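INTERNAL AUDIT FORM
Audit reference: QA-55
Scope: verify that the stored structure record matches its stored sequence.
Auditor: D.O.
Record contents follow.
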Amino acid sequence: MNLKGETQLPKPAPRQVDPQILAHEIVERLTYRIGKDAKAAKPHDWLHAVILSIRDRVIDAWIESTHKTYEEQGRRVYYLSLEFLIGRLMRDAASNMEMLDDLQAALDSLGVDLDLIAALEPDAALGNGGLGRLAACFMESMATVDIPAYGYGIRYVNGMFRQEISDGWQVELPENWLAHGNPWEFERREASYEVGFGGRVDPAECENCGPYQMSWRPAERVIATPYDTPIAGWRGKRVNTLRLWEAQPIDPILLDKFNAGDHLGALSESNRAEALTRVLYPADSSPAGQELRLRQEYFFSSASLQDIVRRHIQYFGDVRTLPDKAAIQLNDTHPAVSVAELMRILVDEHGLDFDEGWDIVRRTFGYTNHTLLPEALESWPVPLFERLLPRHMQIVYAINSRLLGEARKSGQFDDHAIGTISLIDEGGERRVRMGNLAFAGSHSVNGVSALHTDLMKVTVFADLHKLYPARINNKTNGVTFRRWLMQCNHGLFELIREAIGDRFMDDAEALRELDNFADDTAFQERFLAVKRFNKVALADLLRKRINARIDADALFDIQIKRIHEYKRQLLNIIEAVALYDQIRSHPEKDWVPRVKLFGGKAAPSYHNAKLIIKLAGDVARAINHDPSVQGLLKVQFVPNYNVSMAEMMIPAADLSEQISTAGMEASGTGNMKFAVNGALTIGTLDGANVEMRDHVGEDNIVIFGLTAAEVNQRRAEGYNPRAVIEQSRELGQALNAIASGVFSPDDPNRYKDLIQGIYDHDWFMVAADFDSYAAAQRRVDGIWQDQALWAKKAIHNVARMGWFSSDRTIREYAADIWNMG
């Protein structure tokens, strides 16, 4: 009998992992699930058949994990994130289920190339950058360290756009990753929920209704239908669930309108619902875009909360015990409306007193902050919020009343401080502050690097921290080395395994044993040979995809991340222009051949970010076509950067660019992936770079630029970038060349305003850090010219990155925030 008293059926025997058996199963699925004879099958047919064969074994572990969770009746984690950048799953799942070698042998026997079909699997377009990739790493690590968990997000049909570069400009196209279906997911129609918008709020009509209990009557409703994807942990120890919501109309077609000839109007409800899950981050520069984004955030938050509460009551009966059995983690402010939604469910649907509900909410939620940028701490105009979510607006006001009352009662705050604590920003247009709501509604608020956490306490949440001094804590990010070393860099993985054995596969900190080989000449040579192999592979890929021809013996200097002014791709490009001038002016010098590679997407409405992409292309065209620097400097922008491209670029990198303005990057995870793959970091003391320096050693990382404290001091003292530029000949010449149209002869004024911004205010300290950055790059040249020294430093980086495993991060969350015991 199971927990509900139902008779249990006998379990099927575990499937064998053997090349012969696998080959038979693959052909069987090809025949009976896809309807193809092996002789007629195309590569995409083989891909589908292989995925189904792997999936069967994942499902066995998935079902076993679910039974185990219910039998233990312990606490479960629910991770709410607007992004899950999971990438391709086939190789990841096969590796984690310990069947990759047998799969390779099975496919060899069938005459099928594993690498060829693996490259056909589309990247799931469920995220944009570090936030989403972190969520994906966390999902895998939660399964690996045996924490029962659900991830909740949106099943975007197109997700983040597919980026093409046309005449140097970014062009956004739909990313049709679901065009041919997704064999990893399972529709769960039985777990669908209604989600409402707009309408009115009336007093609840019941005999025992409390004074805060209301009845929300939405004017519009949609259906949230879940699709579940199994996420396997390392060695298949546990398989957790990623549940993504699709929006569907209650009435797909309004027949009365259709029959009356209003064919477009008949589909309006369907189109409105489907828009909710069409794209990731609709441009919010217009009122319509803001409304769609708020709708998205409430849609997935409401569906997820309804699902969590339903499951809890099903297995534990009493909603009051929710904090004992559920830990809900808000990944940034996107799901912050969940605080108000859970209050609505507890008070309006379950009849709890407001104060009792608020206590449950705060004991259930944790909030992870990912930014110190005020504009990235979401806020919504009060009229928009109240129109779309009228009951939630009432709840926000009620929470705010208690919050401000508590602050005033403490006697610690003047009126200005009370204003910063408030959930409603009264400065100018009144707005609902989602970061403050998430902070107030959580028992734990964590930063994602030591520096970021310290800065949170004195910047964006200074007064809330003063009111709740024990609430903020640090959980430095990590990455899963299963994907970001073992799978994407097979050569380095096998070299490490041969040198130190297998223990690092289960305990990343065992990589430290590699330190013993840093001075070993033979090991250095093999290490550099692996790196060159990866560089050749990347060079071949870029030649095939974008006709770029790069020298694998040059230093590969790579910056791949979301395009944003604070990440300072512009600083990198300006330094490339200055280096270009220096090489032409001093051809007699022994210059290090260097290839600068850029990748990343700009938000569609972010003009300056898109202009920076165009500048990278214009500078590349000038430099790459100039015979005077051939073989010494090359610049290339790589379009449509995604997880799969990262898996090629990161193992090939010699130098990792982590050059954000100090105090503005919360953590970064690309920095960790590059380092464990044997790249040296050039970076500021920002985000997790600070802790990376402490772990790898000051001699094995190249640090430059102002610290966060110095940046703040410069701004406070009235920083004058023009004076700085006038004192730096190289910087002044580079800025003048860009601004005057040297790189844009078709439009000499194209970059005038972009460069003028550096002269006028330079908020991101490009000018302030330029000379330090240029000098650091010349230090990099010096290290590169001694290849044994370079190899030694790179090996130390690999060896000392074990602490940055997402397994360690998740164990800290489990112990300090989720109370997993």
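Auditor finding: record pair retrieved intact. Residues 334 and 554 are 42 Å apart (CA to CA).
Action required: none
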